Structure formats: structure tokens, C-alpha cells
């Protein structure tokens, strides 16, 4: 951003004003509409302040559509627009200045209070001071005590109706308690608490999903959702801090409004400090700056408001903000420190996350020695290198983050960071191969025996569509791992009945035994799992790119698990990059490989089984006498014995209600050589239709696919 603030030659005012307006509109769009800001708040504030200054110096270039004449972003598409009953204006910012450049960091706040003194013609002005919540502004309109609608600020005149999303937030009352006024418009902030935000980001990191820059960014992105179920899954809260339209008993001060909120059980912003002089104001600001680090939500400043409503009316408004309030923005506390190393953590889903190991430094009241770097793409974007001097701050005053590298302090000989090279292409937890799928930023470990992934892998291994081990869900998997009984899914086959029966699912203080009956179910399920077909085992192993359909096709092509490690068909698929390789490659032609297995699947399977980790899995399975066989082995359909596999080469789709479960019907068809697909195409041979199934039946008729009954299918079997 340096070119925006320190240009070699000053631009003509008209040109610079145009540049700033364009740049600010761009960042408004990123912030308000896309919830994906690209610059820091302080950089945005500097742009905005420069534009305000230039416009005041050159009124001949005034434009009613300038960002300085507006409050925020436009309502986004997809929501109904609501006109605010009373304009929902923003509050002017005043900034804490850099102590290195001034003797009075609070000079702008002092100037604000002095303007109040001048306009009200007295020295002592009663004002309130409260935290500036780092959230999304919202208006809640109650009529006769019932929530009528909720809206975003939008452009200050019109916002988006987000009632369907706000109703999911438990701290927002849908009906007010006590005697409610006939009309009450409450202004406040929707936000994400610090701990919930950190937990959500950690979960997204583990899943290889992009993380949110700060809680406000996460909140804005959540409120943009059209599906309220997705909003309900996010930990949002609401606090009130202002009033809009109102019809009820007279309110004369901010204390009256606070009392009304308490009476109606509407959660309100706290603490609310009262001061009556400039000296008291400066003390209160310092107190709040210290205490805000202990609040449950992110803050970036303090809001100062004249307490008396009559004096507010006397002071009035400017075009986009009231004269009786100001938001004092604290300087983000940033510290320089040295990045000593980068370590790689392996999450429970196999995602490798780089972490900066820092020379300890005090930031925002706590000592910071580690900071997440999220992923390799983020490291490369910031060009972070080991031994760099970096600037650290807490994102939203919560999570330690590397802001940027101090390039002028970079030691000679540092190298760009490569995660793959850093770990030698192997998972630091288990030594298994790592891979990054196309279109994703995260590197993952694909070894189903990886100890770091034990819980999630055991859960997958035992799931119904995998080995169907009854009684082993996430809670049991957590207990097996935490109690030291299992570090990999294959350890399940070493468990005794007694170990399972006495397994403590609770805490040491409040134990909860798994029990004899549950233990028996697991032992019996494990015995049945031993003879489950190869495709179920392949799906259970959770190899990257290998889903249920790919597992079926791989099992058709290979009779036993070790066959995959030296499969000629998989090597041909991996090595031949032609789009029509399956039709032109002489090795592949007789196998008639379906679309479920291609180059990406072949690469993933071969990489795993050729690795040391994959070889260890095969050795361990042999030691445990686990030898799954294919139940649909038919590598070359042209050579099939039609007496034993009468449906070889035929593709079925199932729809409607059958006399037996679909999984059982699917198993029976596949046992006779058929392939069962989930969707109809021109390559489908039969649609097996039970009761219902209208849409698939219609599509089958359009494509000329033969529709058969369950009785006809049984004749084929």
C-alpha cells in the first residue's frame, strides 16, 4: 500500500481524489459485499482520511456519491431491501495517534470533546464511554414487543432484510419481556465471540478451508448466507448499543435507554462508563483500553456519546454522522520479532498446518511465541522465510498473526519456504506421503494409519458404508485414542472384549463404562468386517480421491489389496495424460475402466501403496490375517463367464421404494457383474424403479433407458 500514501510526485488534487474514491469503493466492496478485506483497518482509515482532507481543501470537486458522503456498502443481491425508519448513520472515527510522532496520542479525541464544549457552551459535558464492538451493525425493529424484522446498515438509508438469519441468534429476543413500547428500533452489533471464532478457524484450518481474517469478517460472511441453517451453525451473538425509531415513554438520557433494554431483556453493550469532564474521559479511555483485552469479544476502540438526548438534538448531525458521538480507534498493537523456525502440525483430518515459532514478544497483554501461518499459499503471498524479522499483531486483538516481513532486516541467504521440501514430502506425524489436490491450498497426509488422524480415521473405518462396525462412533473413537488403546484403525482388531467393556467414555471424575453388551456388538462386528469385500475396505481406508464409486471400480479391477501396489492398469492411467486414453491405450482398452477411476485416483492409490506407510499397512494387515477379496472382480468384461456373471457390463440405476433396502439390492446386482450408478445417463442400461421415483423415471424415458420392475430385475439375477 506504500504507493497510495508516499508517492514520488504529488498527483493533481482532482486526479488523486478520483484515485482515492475508486480505491475506497473497491475496498468497500471487498469488505461489505464479499466479506473478504484485502487491507487492514488502519490502511483503510488512512485512505479515507486523506480523501476527507482533500475534499475539504477542494470543495470544487465535491461529489454526492463520494465514499465520504456515504455510510457503508450497498445491499447485496439476494436479499429484500428495507428502508430504515430513521437513517442508520455511522459514527465519525477519531484516532489514537502514534506516540512516536506526537506528545498527545489522544489529540483527536480531545479535539472532539472541545467541540462539544464549544457547541454546548460549557466546560463539563456528560458523556458515556463503551467498547466499540468489532462486529456487523444491525437494526432490530420491534412492533408491540415482537420482532418485526432485522436489517443491515447498507447505505444508511436502505439495508438488507436479514430477519431469517437473525432469528437463529439465541441472544436476540423474538418477543420482548415486560411492557414493551409500540415501536422500538434497537441498533447494535452482531459478532462472533473470541473463543468461538478461534475454534471455528482452527476447524476450518484442519479441513483445509480458507480461514477468516477476523471475527467481523466471519460474521459478515455468515450474515450473507441465504440459508439460515448455515447461520444457525455459526456462533453469533448480539449486543445493543443505540436507538433508532421509537414510540413509547419519553427517554431523556442514555441511562434511560439502558434501563429500557434491561427491562425488556435485550442484551446491551457493557461496560458503560459515565464521565463529566475531559480529564475523566481520558482516564476512562485508558481504563477501557486495558479492560477490553478481557472481554469475550473483539474490540478496536471506544465509542463516546453525549448522554443527554436533548443535547444530542441540539448538536444535530452532519451528512453521514452525528455531531454528538465519536468512535475512538485504538492503534493496533504491533511488535517486531524474529521467526526462528516453522513447524508443521497435522490436524485430525490430515491437513498440514505451518506454525511460526517466534522469539517471545508481549502483544496486547499476552506473551506471543507462536502464530499460525495457515497454509503454504499464505506464506508465499507474504514471502515469509525462516530467520526473518516479522511484524506481529493479534488479528482482531485475539489470534496472533504475522502481518508482514520487515524486508530491510532480512538476513542474507534466506530461502523461499516450500512445505513439501520442508517435510521431505512426508507427513511429520507418520511418514506417509502428502499430497495437495488441484484447486485446494492445503497439503494433506493420506495415510489411514496416521496417529494424528486416529479419531477421524477410526470413525471413517467403522462407518456404515465402510466396515459397518456397530457401536464405534466418534465418542468411542475419542475414548479409544485418548485412553491409549488405539493409534490407528487397524488397532481395533487387537482389542479384547474386556478392554472394550471397561472402556471409560466419560471423565476420570465421572466415569461411564462402555459395557458388556456394547463390547460384544463391537467384537462381533469386527469379525464380520474381516470378510467384508475389498471395495468396502478400500472405502474404509479413506485414501484421497477414493470414494464409494471409485472403490467399487478398483475392486472390479483388482482381486486383492496388494494387487493395487503394482497394478498395470493404474500405472497406465497415471502415466497416459490423454483425454481419451481409456479408448486408445492398448493396456487400458480391455479393462473398460469407468469414469469413476481416472488419473487422479490412480496417482493417489499408487502413491499410497508404494510408500513406506502403505507397505506398512499391507504388512500389518497380513500379520492380523486380514485379506479382503473382491466380490465383483471382473477386470476384463469381454472375457466374462456370462453363466456366473450374467449382468457383466450392464449399468443399473435404482429409484423409488423397493421390497428390500437399496444397499442390499445394489449388492445383489453387483454380485452378478452389474455396475450400479447414482444418476441416469445415456450409458445407463436399466432403471430399476420401485414405487415413486418420478424424476428419474421421466429422465429415463427422455434418454430411451429401459425401465424395469423389481420382479424383472430378480429374473435377471
TrEMBL record:
Its cofactor is Mg(2+); Mn(2+). This is DNA ligase. GO terms for molecular function: DNA ligase (NAD+) activity; metal ion binding. It catalyses: NAD(+) + (deoxyribonucleotide)n-3'-hydroxyl + 5'-phospho-(deoxyribonucleotide)m = (deoxyribonucleotide)n+m + AMP + beta-nicotinamide D-nucleotide. The gene is ligA. Pfam families: BRCT, DNA_ligase_aden, DNA_ligase_ZBD, OB_DNA_ligase. The active site is at 132 (n6-amp-lysine intermediate). Belongs to the NAD-dependent DNA ligase family. LigA subfamily. SUPFAM superfamilies: BRCT domain, DNA ligase/mRNA capping enzyme, catalytic domain, Nucleic acid-binding proteins, RuvA domain 2-like. HAMAP family: DNA_ligase_A. Its EC number is 6.5.1.2. Keywords: DNA damage, DNA repair, DNA replication, Ligase, Magnesium, Manganese, Metal-binding, NAD, Zinc. Residues 642-717 form the BRCT domain. NAD(+) binds at residues 41-45, 90-91, 130, 153, 189, 305, 329. GO terms for biological process: DNA repair; DNA replication. It comes from Haloferula luteola. Zn(2+) binds at residues 427, 430, 445, 450. DNA ligase that catalyzes the formation of phosphodiester linkages between 5'-phosphoryl and 3'-hydroxyl groups in double-stranded DNA using NAD as a coenzyme and as the energy source for the reaction. It is essential for DNA replication and repair of damaged DNA.
Amino acid at each position: 500500500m506504500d504507493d497510495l500514501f508516499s508517492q514520488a510526485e504529488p498527483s493533481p488534487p482532482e486526479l488523486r481524489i478520483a484515485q482515492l474514491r475508486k480505491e475506497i469503493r473497491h475496498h468497500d466492496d471487498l469488505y461489505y459485499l464479499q466479506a473478504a478485506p484485502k487491507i487492514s483497518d488502519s490502511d483503510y482509515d488512512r485512505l479515507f482520511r486523506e480523501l476527507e482532507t482533500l475534499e475539504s481543501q477542494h470543495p470544487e470537486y465535491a461529489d454526492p456519491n463520494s465514499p465520504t458522503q456515504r455510510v457503508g456498502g450497498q445491499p447485496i443481491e439476494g436479499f429484500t431491501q428495507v428502508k430504515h425508519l430513521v437513517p442508520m448513520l455511522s459514527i465519525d472515527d477519531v484516532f489514537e495517534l502514534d506516540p512516536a510522532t506526537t506528545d498527545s496520542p489522544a489529540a483527536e479525541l480531545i479535539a472532539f470533546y472541545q467541540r462539544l464544549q464549544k457547541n454546548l457552551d460549557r466546560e463539563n459535558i456528560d458523556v458515556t464511554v463503551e467498547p466499540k464492538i468489532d462486529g456487523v451493525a444491525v437494526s432490530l425493529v420491534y412492533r408491540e414487543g415482537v420482532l418485526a424484522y432485522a436489517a443491515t446498515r447498507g447505505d444508511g438509508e436502505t439495508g438488507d432484510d436479514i430477519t431469517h438469519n437473525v432469528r437463529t441468534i439465541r441472544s436476540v429476543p423474538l418477543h420482548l419481556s415486560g411492557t414493551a413500547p409500540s415501536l422500538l428500533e434497537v441498533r447494535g452489533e452482531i459478532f462472533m465471540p473470541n473463543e468461538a471464532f478461534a475454534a471455528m478457524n482452527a476447524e476450518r484450518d484442519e479441513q483445509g478451508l480458507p480461514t477468516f481474517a477476523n471475527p467481523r469478517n466471519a460474521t459478515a460472511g455468515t450474515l450473507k448466507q441465504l440459508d439460515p441453517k448455515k447461520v444457525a451453525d455459526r456462533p453469533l451473538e448480539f449486543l445493543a448499543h443505540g436507538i433508532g425509531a421509537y414510540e413509547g415513554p419519553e427517554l431523556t438520557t442514555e441511562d434511560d435507554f439502558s434501563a429500557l433494554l434491561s427491562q425488556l431483556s435485550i442484551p446491551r453493550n457493557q461496560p458503560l462508563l459515565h464521565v463529566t469532564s475531559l480529564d475523566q474521559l481520558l482516564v476512562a479511555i485508558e481504563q477501557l483500553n486495558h479492560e477490553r483485552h478481557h472481554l469475550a469479544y473483539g474490540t478496536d476502540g471506544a465509542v463516546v456519546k453525549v448522554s443527554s438526548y436533548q443535547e444530542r438534538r441540539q448538536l444535530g448531525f452532519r451528512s453521514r454522522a452525528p455531531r454528538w458521538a465519536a468512535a475512538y480507534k485504538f492503534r493496533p498493537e504491533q511488535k517486531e520479532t524474529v521467526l526462528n523456525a516453522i513447524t508443521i502440525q497435522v490436524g485430525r483430518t490430515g491437513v498440514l498446518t505451518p506454525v511460526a515459532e517466534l522469539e517471545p514478544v508481549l502483544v496486547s497483554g499476552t506473551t506471543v511465541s507462536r502464530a499460525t501461518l495457515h497454509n503454504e499459499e499464505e506464506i508465499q503471498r507474504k514471502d515469509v522465510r525462516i530467520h526473518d524479522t516479522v511484524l506481529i499483531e493479534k488479528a482482531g486483538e485475539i489470534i496472533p498473526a504475522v502481518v508482514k516481513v520487515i524486508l530491510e532486516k532480512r538476513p542474507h541467504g534466506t530461502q523461499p519456504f516450500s512445505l513439501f521440501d520442508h517435510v521431505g514430502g512426508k507427513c511429520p506425524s507418520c511418514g506417509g506421503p502428502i499430497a495437495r489436490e488441484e484447486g485446494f491450498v492445503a497439503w494433506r497426509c493420506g495415510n489411514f494409519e496416521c496417529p494424528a488422524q486416529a479419531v477421524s480415521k477410526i470413525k471413517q473405518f467403522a462407518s456404515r458404508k465402510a466396515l459397518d462396525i456397530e457401536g464405534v462412533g466418534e465418542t468411542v473413537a475419542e475414548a479409544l485414542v485418548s485412553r491409549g488403546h488405539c493409534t490407528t484403525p487397524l488397532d481395533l482388531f487387537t482389542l479384547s472384549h474386556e478392554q472394550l467393556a471397561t472402556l471409560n467414555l466419560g471423565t476420570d471424575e465421572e466415569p461411564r463404562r462402555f459395557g458388556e453388551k456394547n463390547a460384544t456388538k463391537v467384537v462381533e462386528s469386527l469379525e464380520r468386517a474381516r470378510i467384508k469385500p475389498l471395495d468396502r475396505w478400500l472405502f474404509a481406508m479413506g485414501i484421497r480421491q477414493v470414494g464409494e464409486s471409485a472403490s467399487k471400480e478398483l475392486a472390479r479391477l483388482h482381486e486383492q489389496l496388494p494387487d493395487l501396489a503394482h497394478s498395470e492398469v493404474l500405472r497406465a492411467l497415471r502415466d497416459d495424460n490423454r483425454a481419451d486414453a481409456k479408448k486408445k491405450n492398448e493396456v487400458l482398452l480391455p479393462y473398460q475402466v469407468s469414469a469413476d477411476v481416472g488419473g487422479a485416483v490412480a496417482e493417489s492409490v499408487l502413491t499410497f501403496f508404494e510408500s513406506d506407510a502403505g507397505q506398512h499397512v499391507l504388512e500389518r494387515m497380513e500379520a492380523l490375517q486380514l485379506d479382503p477379496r473382491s466380490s465383483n472382480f471382473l477386470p476384463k468384461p469381454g472375457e466374462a463367464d456370462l453363466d456366473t456373471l450374467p449382468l457383466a457390463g450392464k449399468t443399473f440405476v435404482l429409484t423409488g421404494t423397493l421390497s428390500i433396502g437399496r444397499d442390499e439390492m445394489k449388492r445383489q446386482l453387483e454380485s452378478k457383474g452389474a455396475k450400479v450408478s447414482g444418476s441416469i445417463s445415456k450409458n445407463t442400461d436399466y432403471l430399476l424403479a420401485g414405487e415413486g421415483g418420478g424424476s428419474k423415471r421421466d429422465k429415463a424415458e427422455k434418454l430411451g433407458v429401459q425401465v424395469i420392475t423389481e420382479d424383472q430385475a430378480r429374473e435377471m439375477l
